[in-house]
Each structure stands twice: as C-alpha cells, then as structure tokens.
Task: inverse folding
C-alpha cells in the first residue's frame, strides 16, 4: 500500500521531477559539447620522460656519506613536480621545441602537427609529474602525437640541462669543515633515464569530467524526487475519500460529485429499467 502511495506522489508531482532533470540535462549537454569541441579534453596523446635527480660529484668533505647524498637527491626530486609548474619553465620548453624542430621533422616529417606549442600557458597545463625515490616521471597530455613527443623531449632536455637553476636548496656542511667549504653547494643535476616515449592515445585532461556529468544526472533525479515528496508533504489538500478516512478515522457515507466547469457537460448515468416479470 505504501509503495502505491509513493507512486501516487511521484505521479502527481512528475512535472517537478521532469523539470529538474531537464535543467540538469541541458547543463550536461552544454558541458559535454564544450568538452567534445575542446582538443585533447576527452582523448589525448600521452608521452612520458623520466629523469634521475642527483648531485654533481664534489669532494667528499662536503657531503659526509652516500646516504646523505641519496636523502638530498630525494628531497630535490620532491621539488621537481613543482618545477614543471614554475613561471618560465613552460616558456623554456617552448623555446627548446623551436630549437629541436629539425629533430622533430626528422621523426614526423615536414610540417608536423604540433598543436599550439608556441603558447607557454598551454604547455604548462599539459604537464604532470610523479616521483619515486629520486626518479621523476613527467607525463605530457596533448591533442596531437607529434606535439606530445616534442614537448616530452623538450622537457627532458630542459631538466637535464638547467635543473640546478630551478632548484633553491641549502646543504649544511660537515661539522668542523672550513667556512669556505660550508658555503659551497654541489649542483643539482638531472640524468635522462627514459627518453620521451612514443605517444599513446588515452584519456584527456578532462576525461574524468564525463563521470562527473553522469553523476550530475543521477543527483538531479534524486533532487527532483526529493522536491516532489517535499512539495506533496507541504500540500495539505485532501484529494480522495481514502485520505479523509485516514485523517479523520471516520467512515464516509456520501460524496458530492465535482461541479462541472463552464462549458463542460457531465454525462448522466442512466439507470437501466427493471426487468418485467
């Protein structure tokens, strides 16, 4: 009986549920169209490059032990993911791509489709980095395969050539060492472990937004049903004799029909004549 009552509420307020779902569907359709029209949003090519972070060899008096070397290298590797988002790093990558154009053309032919590689802000948004010990892997997500490889290759070149210029660190000298030795700092270096990989097609930078848009439709349906039950709960009108009996706990002995509206004719119920004996 309660399921029938619930269905009655949904049927009476179905317009409200449909209204909420339609509004959500329009928003989802707009966002989905925007993502579909944005290159690399849903599908993109990925190329990765891996570097090993370390310290330039220096006299052992400056760094007491190999263990400390590794600790410093891992600490520096922690900072590399933030380096790829630094202002100016994306510009350095863009400039490096321009210098590598002959290499890129040798790999992908003349006039390769590199995408909008001359816009540094676009390059910065395509980079993400992860670290394992002193190994840092940079992933490039780009709309075109040649562009993904070119950016990953340029990132590896910039980091291996100029890593020390992006890192600001201090290593305490060995106790008892001379002040001049304590002021010297071994340079941070990056060694290319894995060059830019062949681009592979995968999810774009906004691929997870499709799941979010689907969740929005589900939430809209739930909100619509909740509003339907709320509006019905606030509505204190009585619509049927069953509701009157349930509310007053009294039997109903008669019921007046609804008066016809203007221009409406109510059909009279004809009583069949009694059979003649």
Result:
């Amino acid at each position: 009986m309660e399921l029938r009552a619930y269905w009655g509420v949904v049927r009476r307020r179905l317009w409200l549920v449909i209204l909420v779902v339609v509004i959500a569907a329009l928003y989802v359709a707009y966002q989905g169209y925007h993502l579909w029209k944005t290159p690399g949003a849903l599908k993109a090519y990925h190329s990765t490059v891996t570097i090993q972070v370390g310290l330039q060899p220096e006299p052992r008096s400056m760094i007491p032990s190999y263990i400390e070397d590794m600790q410093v290298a891992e600490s520096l590797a922690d900072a590399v993911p933030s380096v790829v988002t630094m202002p100016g790093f994306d510009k350095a990558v863009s400039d490096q791509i321009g210098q590598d154009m002959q290499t890129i053309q040798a790999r992908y032919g003349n006039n390769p489709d590199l995408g909008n590689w001359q816009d540094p802000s676009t390059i910065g948004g395509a980079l993400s980095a992860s670290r394992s010990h002193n190994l840092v892997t940079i992933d490039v997500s780009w709309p075109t395969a040649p562009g993904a490889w070119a950016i990953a290759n340029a990132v590896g070149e910039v980091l291996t050539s100029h890593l020390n210029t992006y890192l600001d660190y201090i290593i305490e000298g060995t106790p008892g060492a001379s002040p001049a030795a304590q002021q010297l700092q071994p340079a941070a270096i990056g060694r290319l472990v894995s060059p830019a990989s062949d681009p592979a097609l995968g999810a774009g930078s906004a691929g997870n937004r499709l799941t979010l848009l689907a969740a929005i439709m589900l939430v809209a349906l739930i909100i619509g049903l909740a509003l339907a039950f709320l509006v019905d709960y606030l509505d204190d009108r009585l619509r049927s004799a069953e509701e009157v009996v349930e509310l007053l706990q009294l039997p109903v002995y008669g019921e007046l029909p609804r008066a016809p509206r203007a221009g409406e004719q109510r059909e009279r119920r004809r009583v069949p004549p009694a059979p003649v004996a």
Notes: Strands lie at 43-55, 127-132, 135-142, 188-194, 200-203. The first helix runs from residue 2 to 12. Residues 173-183 have pLDDT under 50 and may be disordered.
